[in-house]
Amino acid sequence: MYAIVSINGIQTRVTPDEVLSVPRLAGEPGDTLTFDQVLLVSDGDTITVGRPYLKGASLTAELVEHLRGPKLKIFKFKRRREYRRRKGHRDELTRIRVSAIKA
Asked: What is the extent of the structural domain holding 51?
């Protein structure tokens, strides 16, 4: 069984008991989160697609931890112009564990 869910505007394929990193969510570690923007649910041979979301379908997940992603380095350069710029950032992430998919 798997589902495609919209979490913070990003469509993600999830399965039960999966641990995944998503953009930062509100809450404390140990909290239970519910996502109701389920786009698709597959249960073996049957696939149910919503328009745009499935009514009555939801995803329950436990918030495991907040973390920061790897540092991304951005370097801009124009040759023969003495133009160099260095910049970087790290994404704020939340790790969640999928508890159940209700369809």
From this structure: 2-102
Q: pLDDT tens for residues 10-23?
A: 999 999 999 999 99
List residues bridging with 81 in a β-sheet: none
Q: How many domains does the chain have?
A: 1
Cα–Cα dist 72/59, whole Å: 31
52-102 pLDDT tens trace: 999 999 999 999 999 999 999 999 999 999 999 999 999 999 999 999 999
Cα–Cα dist 18/92, whole Å: 20
Edge-first strand listing for the sheet containing 32-35? 19-23, 92-102, 58-68, 32-35
Residue 21 · residue 12 · CB < 8 Å? no
Q: Tokens standing for 21?
A: 């990193």
